[in-house]
Design a protein that fits this description.
With 106 residues, the protein is of the alpha+beta class. The strands form two sheets. Strands 1-2-3 form a three-stranded antiparallel sheet, with no helix packed on it. The longest helix has 12 residues. The radius of gyration is 15 Å and the shape is globular. The protein is built from three helices and five strands, in the order ββββαααβ.
Length: 106
């Protein structure tokens, strides 16, 4: 069951006993900093997309073979059904998305 704000903005999804965000927490811009801080494991929440492809994309970012902007581009090409969010990581409203990784120059 989807929950919306008074202005019809998707806010939460209620799934049995769980309350889930209507946004996808996407922190690829911060993977290098998290690795430096000692984070050694990352979890991907299952979605209706090809999760093997999604995990391959994140593995490429973890191995620094592609950048976060390319990862998001590929996810959108797969018709990813949710907006990205990472605001809580940047002391902003959680549903916001802050791009902090500079795109690679061509």
């Amino acid at each position: 069951m989807d929950v919306e704000t008074l202005d019809d903005t998707p806010f939460l999804a209620v799934n049995g006993l769980q309350t889930l965000s209507s946004h996808y927490v996407e922190m690829a811009d911060n993977i290098a900093q998290m690795q430096t801080a000692g984070v050694t494991a990352f979890r991907l929440s299952p979605h209706s997309l090809d999760m093997t492809r999604v995990s391959d994309l994140y593995r490429q970012v973890l191995a620094r073979k592609t950048d976060p902007e390319e990862l998001r581009h590929r996810l959108k090409e797969m018709r990813f059904p949710m907006n990205f969010a990472n605001g809580f990581l940047h002391e902003a409203p959680g549903a916001e998305f802050r791009q902090t990784h500079a795109p690679q120059a061509e």
